[in-house]
Amino acid sequence: MSKRKSRETHMTSGECVSQVQRILRERFCHQGLPEKPVGLDSQYKHLLELLKRTAVHGESNSILIVGPRGTGKTMLLSCVLRELMDINEVQKNLLQVYLNGLLQTDDRIALREITRQLNLENVVGDKVFGSFAENLGFLLEALRKGDRGSSQPVLFVLDEFDLFAHHKNQTLLYNLLDVSQSAQAPVAVVGLTCRLDVLELLEKRVKSRFSHRQILVASSLTFGQYLDNVRSQLSLPQDFPDARFGQEWNDSVAKLCEDKSVEEILQKQFNSSKDFRSLHLLLLLALSRVNVSSPTLRAVDLLEASRLCTVDAKANMLHGLSILELCLIISMKHLNDIYDGEPFNFQMVHNEYKKFIQRKSNSVHNYEKPVILKAFEHLLQLELIKLVDGSSSKTQREYQLVRLLLDHGQIMEALQRYPQCPTDVKQWAVSSLA
Amino acid sequence: MDLQATTSSVSKGCFVFKPSGKKRKRSIGKYICLANSDDRENGKQRFAICQRLWGKIKGDTEALQDELNKKILDSLLEFSRKWASSFQCKPDDWASHMRANEIPTAALVLGVNVPDHDMTLQSLSDLLQSSVTPFVVSVQAKECAALKHLMQRVFERLMGVGITVDEEDEEESSHCNTAVHQKRVHCSMNTLCQWYKSVTKKYSAVSPDEKRSVLNKDALPNPPVVVIFKDLEGFNPRVLQDFILICSRYTQELPLMFIFGIATSPSTIQNMLPHSVSSLLCIQLFQSLSCTQHLATVIDKLLLTHHFPFKLSGKVLQVLVSIFLYHDFSVRNFIKGLQLALLEHFHSQALSVLCCEKKEALLSAQTLSHQDVERIRQLPSFMRYVESQEPQEQVELLTSDERVKETCEKLLKNLRKYHKNYYPVLRCLHSLTSALPKYPLGKQIRELYVSCLEKNVWESSEYGSAMQLLRMLAKDELVAALQKCTDVLEQCKAKKMKRASQQLKEYISKFEKLDRHSAGDNTAEDFTSPEKSLQKKTDLFHLQKTLLEMKESRRTKKMSPFEVLRNEVLDFISSLVRTHLALPDEQPLHEVSYFSSSAVLRHHLNATPRNSIQTALSHPYRYLQNEALKTDAGTVSSAAPDICIVYKLHLECGRLINLYDWLEAYSTVVSAAEGKDPESADYGKVDELKHARFIQAVSELEFLGFVKSTKQKTDHVARLTWGGC
Amino acid sequence: MPVQLQHSGYSAEKLQSLTESLPCREAQASTLLALMGEPDQYSYPSIFIYGHRASGKSYVTLRVLKELELPHAAVSCVECVSPGLLFEQVLLSLFGHTAASSLPRCPSLSDFVRLYKQLCSQNPAKQTRYIVLDRAELLRDMEVNLLPGFLRLQELVDDNVTVILLSEIVWDKFRPNTGLFEPLLLHFPDYTKAELQKILARDSHPSYPQELYSFYINILLGVFYSVCRDLRELRHLAALNFPKFCEPLENGEAKESDTHKLWRNIEPHLKKAMQTVYLREISSVQWEQQQEMMEKEAMAPKGLSAYTHVELPYYSKFLLIAAYLASYNPARTDRRFFLKHHGKMKKTNFLKKHEKTSNHLLGPKPFPLDRLLAIFYSVVDSRVAPTASVFSQISSLVTLQLLTLVGHDDQLDSPKYKCAVSLDFICAISRTVSFDIVRYLYDFL
Asked: Does the keyword DNA-binding apply (chain A) (predicted)?
């Protein structure tokens, strides 16, 4: 309903806020495309050039877009395609096939997918093909039987490219790249991957057919640019229905970005990782705190958000343990100190615990062994401790070897934050003697 | 080797399984007839008798089984009924609402005698099906390797989706076929729920009288679904956990109920399930009665009765019992042993035609063939009997068959009487002695029985001490014991026993009278006082002491009327014992009904394959009966078969055997057998023939599992046996 | 009064009822709501909610989705024996039966995604669709592409869908080495003691006053809080022991006012309950039965593990004993223990304790069959023929899980075993055959 309202230029703050939410969420969650990819201009040009050649002049090509997760590989590609599609001859000419390593887990599935996306199911019907190559060839052939003499150019986008390299003797890759080499049909193969060593995965015959074009998408932003980016990400477009509110919002955002504390946070974020997705996550968290009662984005929101992002999960879990389980963890810690990091079993832990109880019987109730064993199992379930691979399920549980997956610091922190933790236990934790 | 040989067959549980009774019986007939083809007739008859007896025994034991399991089964039924009803009307009282979505679980502890379990569980599921719910599934560990399989089994058996083997195979191998499709749909829990809804609707739809046919009268609108895990120990904990987790999410729609069949102890549940899972169960414990009790009842009902003419001698009984106690706790195997004994008896003992019900026996006694009469004359017991007769009578017996037949009838009657009296007296002796400290005559009646079969009880020292202890019993104890005896004797119809019980009654009444006069009679008290001290059962040593001092007192003072009476009673009892508990071997014609060849039984039931192989190898004479092979212990003649020589040689080697040395030694021995003179050049030299024979022998040894080829050392083989046993 | 949940885009009364149904979880609920945004707005592709058992993860999530009538599919991964089931259930609850049935056999993720796309193109989302995957840690054990796939499902199917993963395990344990789409992490902290008190007090017994019950809960927490913070468990315990608590009131020994008396009455009882009830060793039903029993003769309730005794055949006992000795004694000490006259074995070199820790700390060691038999023959008093049934007893002990067969069971020669029973157990066994096992154990020399 708010859509209809938004025609008018003036809205209640509530509607404005929800508008803001809608727009920004579009960006953060659904990776709404920016008008221009930030700090990737050269890559952008390069890719655009390449694809244009395929789309317009129908020459085959293959290229890899490599970069860590969340740095905007997909974004780059789709920006390029967006521009490409504005050229109307391309629009009616170029065919696109999207494959994803997560979905098309083997070549049979992949081929079916290709057929579908080129919508040639009816053409193929229930033909049976000897080989993959034959099948693919047929498909491309079928495309040629278009209205025009020369066949339509096809753009193959392979997301999670590295996963395709794990298919049985890389048939798909081989054939695609082979086609892209031999000019039987104009195809462009664009692979996206986060593995920089992806070429090592390719078989020799596949590798040799790949034009070693790579676009490295590693954002080389300075913090300044990063900050600008944040601002642009947060600020509303000019055509925001309620101009006044839009203006206010943008001003507030601008102010926000000057704010010292905010800058710190962003600095921290920047240092940890420059990629956009983590940034989006942060911003979304902040944004989610914006509502009618507080219609602007405040520094505290961002602070809160960053706190949420950087919280230590294990410490959180430790906080939820019972005293008994905590005691067990401590005795494990001691065991780790004694047999520097050697795996241990329940019997030993129980021993340590018993020793402690004998010394400080008053502080903690002395539980029977089965109760303790249950506590131990719970820790195992929470994967705070882990079975050593060797120890099979056949051995009694008391004797299965385990490792502690917590470090000294985490345990100590947890102890500090623990509600009404007995002092004896704390002392025991710090004491060197087991 | 042995281990492996047995493992395969005992994957189910403890014990070597013999071929099923049915298969054996078919062969019996031939077995017995062929045994002595001279008179088939008699053989056939015996076979018939044997069959009949076995049928009787079998029936009785089965009845016994059910009767023994009755208690626990009933309690289980009770349990399931309770829950079933609680499923009907979700009781909205506070407590039950607080414990929603627990799955009721019966932990049924059955003991380690795994072979007996199936029977129990089967009857359990039948009972449930007939009286509580039509939806009973029982699953075994070995068919549920993964969660998928477990669910499949459960679903199949519930919804009756017949899935043939080949489909399953496909399911294992390929990924897409109709079978899989079907199953995938089936295997989701909510499809099961839907199925359940539809089915229950159907049940509630059908008219009551129809319903009676489906379920029984107290059929519930939505009966519980019972899953029986036959052998909990065998299950993979992960699978079980997941299954329980899944089920617990559907407790509202689907009234589920588990029954765990546990062989060892309930604590295994704790070992298998983590807290998060076990907290979803509402476990209730059911302990089946121990198999020793079970055995006791079986013996009591089958052996300690005159209803079965067929008897076991002491030795045989001991063999069977010891197999039970030492090796398996399996009652089923015990009964199988009994069956074997029966079979053996009827096979080996031609006169077993007389081993049957009274009338029949007498009949066949009249129609004995001459040969049989001769056999009778051969019987040692009969001979003894003859000797005991007057000379003229003896002549009669040795000459005229008719005479023999008559006497035979008479003797059979006697034997029967003997048994009629034997068991009551035995029981009453047991009831007297079983309460004594340290059980001089054994706690279980079977022990007493065995000792009675072995030799005359009253001559044994145990009996003496028992009597002594009895002589020290205080009145109330004694009276109680006597009361028991009378009850025992009451039950049997034999005249003698009737009389005996009468007498005992009189004694008891006397005691009471005595009680009445000697109220306030001080003499009685100061005698009873030391006896009172005996009522609390003290150690033997202490008893002896008190006994002594009482002897003292007896010497000094005259006995109290109570003591007099007590002695009388005990004398009476011992007279009973002497008259009726005489050795069966002394009874003429006892061979007819007593099976005594324990060696055969042991040989069959408790086989020692390893030993027999080894004897065969180390003492070939035992089997080949060839004089040339006869040697003194330890050595093997060089004329023995190759494998024996090779075996002997290999015994002297260590863990690893050098093949070449072995061959050398072998050829030396063999050439000694060829009788070449040791000086000749080619003495002990290896030629192709010897080599071939050696190789063959070694490979035979390997086949028997004594050696195996090893990678540790070139041209060596490893020994698989330890010691030179 | 808890803080009122508020969020534009949802009717106040719905939120109101929601607030009431989520005691002590307002904070988490509101965060969740805020992240979800208004129904027609985009939400983050995947949210990962972690926290301890019974900290209200699934409860809160599902309440919110149900109360606000948002289109959602809730699946527990335990049930999904195959990914096919998972897909089926998701489609079923998002698009109805026909959709689910149109899945091919043994569907792959790509089939799922294709179908999903095609379905939501038929009826495009007006509201965010939610897929809630409970016990998400199990996704790791299924096909490798499943978890990453679901995390970026929004992108794959290009629909306004959000996948919510619930788990007790921290996210770090999910990350494969190649990395994947990072979800939005949300932690549900455990309830504080006060909160537990508050929640437990809610389900008070109808026939008793509220404050009495909360007092009772207070005592209960005093005993159990240190060992168990699982709301479900505590509720169970509370329910079971309440009748006992009320007894003095029932038979007029005490009034609701004299709290101390009540406390003294219940406190030791609860301590006892820790052993049996907390471990679920006896069922709630039996517990109640045993209450009556304990009135009569003052015996502690027996748990399952109280019945550890196992009746075994005579030789099986000795075999088990031998196995125990074999797996807890070093092989070199056998001569010393089992040879009648073990020559001149110097006490020193025999008793060299170079092992830091005793074998009862390290656990049983595997031993070959022949060692077992050798020890067996030397400990068993009578002469035993190596009959088939002796060997079969060994394998039956394995099936009873008292012994475990180490390594492959296909190696015919010299199989290796381990003894899998506790010291107490074996002591009990050896007592029945009057065999003093402790004298033969290296650790207790």
From this structure: yes
